[in-house]
Specification:
The strands form 3 sheets. This protein has an 8-stranded antiparallel beta sheet. It is elongated. Helix 1 crosses helix 2 and helix 3 runs antiparallel to helix 4. The protein is an alpha+beta fold and 252 residues long. The chain has 2 domains: 114 residues, Roll (DNA Polymerase III, Chain A, domain 2), CATH 3.10.150.10; 110 residues, DNA Polymerase III, subunit A, domain 2 (DNA Polymerase III, Chain A, domain 2, Roll). The chain has 4 helices and 16 strands. The model has no long low-confidence stretch (mean pLDDT 94).
Length: 252
């Protein structure tokens, strides 16, 4: 039964946008129980979704919305399966609003005439605020499509297990390379306005591609501190979502 109290109306396209930007970062490891879902954070004037698998974290906030009946902050862990279902429902509907409610154990999402129910994940979602980088002072802006195709080209030569690609920031360019004993090595270079110190950092190619696909077209900004610290990616132009993606570096 759909609860009568505590129903929150969420704009359908906003929820769809949040799921598309975070859902792929949810852990699929059964043992990481609290990571098998995304954290949905409702405040009176914003909605945020956070997902992580321990190696990367997607954080997306949409402000400027009005959520009647929400005071303080309302935290909900939404299981991956429910996120996927919601996305396909929202892809195939023109309903403008999702009605969301929950009781002790169940989540309810009503979209038009459809009702999706899901068990609520219990447990403590990690303290993601602590992971968000504060002092990534090296910043470089790159064209999404150029970066994506360079990573995909080079990643064919990456070690199959680690999927690691190297990014070397040099004056005026970024070199992306990968090598493995079986496939040999490959390097690609992208011109970029950078005049900081030279630095090399390794990332899982798939993690980068996942973000670039979700971020859409245009330019992205890569913000780094050093080769041992998490990198942060975000769309360079402001869109309606405050979107940040944090990736742990790999040893290369």
């Amino acid at each position: 039964m759909f609860p009568t109290a505590g129903v929150v109306k969420i704009p359908g396209q906003v929820l769809r946008g949040l799921i598309a930007r975070t859902g792929f970062a949810i852990s699929s490891e059964e043992s990481r129980y609290t990571l098998n879902g995304a954290l949905m954070l409702l405040k009176p004037e914003s909605i945020t979704m956070v997902a992580t698998d321990g190696h990367r974290l997607a954080h997306c906030e949409r402000s400027g919305e009005k959520f009647e009946g929400v005071s303080g902050e309302m935290k909900t862990l939404v299981p991956k399966k429910a996120m996927d279902e919601l996305k396909s429902l929202l892809d195939s509907t023109d309903a403008e609003t999702v009605e969301f409610a929950k009781d002790e154990s169940t989540l309810f999402f009503r979209i038009g005439s459809r009702l999706l129910t899901s068990r609520q994940l219990t447990g403590q979602f990690p303290n993601f605020e602590a992971v968000l980088p504060k002092d990534n002072s090296k910043s470089i802006t790159l064209n999404n499509a150029d970066l994506n195709s360079a990573i995909l080209r080079v990643a064919q030569f990456a070690d199959e297990r680690s999927r690691a690609v190297r990014m070397k920031l040099e004056k005026g360019e970024v070199k992306i390379s990968a090598s493995s004993t079986e496939a040999g090595e490959s390097e690609d270079s992208i011109e970029a306005p950078y005049d900081g110190e030279t630095m090399t950092i390794g990332f899982n190619a798939q993690y980068l591609v996942d973000f670039l696909k979700a971020a859409g077209t245009g330019e992205v900004r890569l913000e780094l501190k050093d080769s041992q610290s998490a990198g942060q990616l975000r769309p360079a132009e402001g869109d309606d979502y405050k979107y940040r993606y944090i990736v742990m570096p790999m040893r290369i």
